[in-house]
Design a protein that fits this description.
Layout lengths: L1 H34 L4 H9 L4 H18 L9
Helix pairs in contact: 2-3
Length: about 80
């Protein structure tokens, strides 16, 4: 039983740390966009020209989400 509790605690700490990293990354990204007065479309265009695979993947994902929303698709975001 103690092993299970320890594993759950370690998993919770790892999850919390990763979530904090994601939040910090999103906040940094939004801050950069605001500081340089860049629109989202301009940011996606700039990222698509990058050589890193992660930037290209994020660009493709952003474009596909935008296309889906324009066609009347649903998101998990409720506002």
């Amino acid at each position: 039983m103690n092993k299970l509790i320890k594993r759950c605690a370690i998993g919770g700490i790892i999850w919390g740390t990763m979530e904090l990293g994601f939040i910090l990354g999103k906040g940094y990204m939004l801050g950069v966009l605001k500081a340089y007065d860049i629109s989202v479309i301009e940011a996606i265009t700039l990222c698509s020209g990058g050589s890193r695979k992660s930037l290209r993947f994020m660009t493709k994902l952003a474009n596909s989400v935008a296309d889906n929303l324009k066609e009347g698709g649903q998101t998990t975001c409720k506002h």
